[in-house]
Amino acid sequence: MAVERTLSIIKPDAVAKNVIGKIYTRFEDAGLKIIASKLVQLSQADAEGFYAVHKARPFFADLVKFMVSGPVVIQVLEGENAVLKHRDLLGATNPKEAAAGTIRADFADSIDANAVHGSDSAENAANEIAYFFASSNVYSR
Ligand code: IDP
């Protein structure tokens, strides 16, 4: 299996709940390494640009509003099959449909406040990582 990288964002709801450490532990226990990390307040332009692919969707404005409602923690995770492994840890987009024991089942309240973002392909991951991190700030190990 290939070693991959993926982009992960702990969203404002999970940061507000003080579960950053619990979520990081799940990543590490699954064999994913945190190779870049930052706590930041996204601007409106940051959030709109990041979610540009969803611009035409009815929930776009609410999604952007939510993502700028408080600080987020953005990380790059590296490991075997990292994209899928991370999404398996997250569970379904809607926490009501997320399998028991997943991050969204345990920490998320609603489909918009759903705790963590995860890239959905290796190609999108590369673009999302470059959106938030200069390559000199990603520390493969
Ligand atoms: P994902 O985060 O599980 O990959 P996407 O379909 O890429 O899900 O949607 C991006 C984000 O947009 C979701 O994480 C969620 O916060 C929000 N979202 C998706 N669908 C809806 C919806 O129907 N209503 C409100 N927010 C939504």
Automatic annotation (TrEMBL):
Where do the annotations place ATP binding? K11, F59, R87, T93, R104, N114
Question: What does the UniProt entry say about where the protein is found?
Answer: Cytoplasm
* SUPFAM superfamilies assigned: Nucleoside diphosphate kinase, NDK (SSF54919)
Provide the active-site residues from the annotation.
H117 (pros-phosphohistidine intermediate)
**Domain Nucleoside diphosphate kinase-like, chain residue ranges per copy:** 3-140
Keywords assigned by UniProt, alphabetized? ATP-binding, Cytoplasm, Kinase, Magnesium, Metal-binding, Nucleotide metabolism, Nucleotide-binding, Phosphoprotein, Transferase
Q: Which domain of life is it from?
A: Bacteria
Of the GO CC terms on this record, one is:
cytoplasm
The GO annotation for biological process reads:
CTP biosynthetic process; GTP biosynthetic process; UTP biosynthetic process
The record's listing under Gene3D superfamilies reads: Nucleoside diphosphate kinase-like domain
State the signal peptide span.
none
Please state the Enzyme Commission number of this protein: 2.7.4.6
GO MF: ATP binding; metal ion binding; nucleoside diphosphate kinase activity
The record's section on Pfam families has:
NDK
Kindly list the cofactors needed: Mg(2+)
Reaction(s) catalysed by this chain, per the record, are: a 2'-deoxyribonucleoside 5'-diphosphate + ATP = a 2'-deoxyribonucleoside 5'-triphosphate + ADP; a ribonucleoside 5'-diphosphate + ATP = a ribonucleoside 5'-triphosphate + ADP
Report the protein's function. Major role in the synthesis of nucleoside triphosphates other than ATP. The ATP gamma phosphate is transferred to the NDP beta phosphate via a ping-pong mechanism, using a phosphorylated active-site intermediate.
Spell out the family assignment given in the record's similarity comment: Belongs to the NDK family.
**Subunit (UniProt):** Homotetramer.
Name this polypeptide is given: Nucleoside diphosphate kinase
